[in-house]
Design brief:
Methane Monooxygenase Hydroxylase, Chain G, domain 1; 0% strand; 143 residues; 83% helix; mainly alpha
Length: 143
């Protein structure tokens, strides 16, 4: 592949990444708030609506994390930029939280699940939002 072609593809990729960060930040903020609402409901009542909302949020989270993974792949192609590390990827923190949440689901330990969401998952989503913001700032100044 010629250098010009690589440069054009890199510019297109950078443009696509920049365009998607605002939406990703919005989703991270919405998910964090929705999961916090789930915690309140889980602690107060264990009804069908609570679990339906939680299930929807988990599905949305799965899609968000897939996007973040693809974003990471795209950023890997822009290796000439010194970009901040993703908090969800570093030390597999997201994976560990998901494993613990799954375990709480299996044992129907709603207090543990609530604690994991409130004290680990929601703060991780807030960190993702901050990371996306710093990434956006870095790409705007260097990209």
């Amino acid at each position: 592949m010629s250098e010009l072609t690589k440069e054009i593809k890199g510019a297109e990729l950078l443009t696509a990444i920049k365009a998607s960060i605002g939406d990703a930040r919005f989703v991270a903020q919405q998910l964090s708030g929705s999961f916090k609402d789930n915690v309140r409901s889980l602690r107060l009542e264990e009804n069908e609506d609570t679990f339906l909302h939680l299930e929807q949020n988990i599905n949305d989270l799965r899609h968000f994390m897939e996007f973040v993974k693809e974003l990471g792949n795209g950023l890997g192609c822009l290796n000439e930029l010194s970009l901040p590390p993703n908090p969800a990827s570093s030390q597999n923190s997201a994976l560990n939280i998901f494993k613990d949440m799954n375990s709480a689901f299996e044992t129907k330990d709603w207090i543990m699940l609530s604690d994991l969401i409130e004290y680990e998952l929601a703060p991780l989503l807030d960190k993702e939002d901050e990371w996306l913001g710093s990434l956006d700032e870095k790409l705007q100044t260097e990209g």
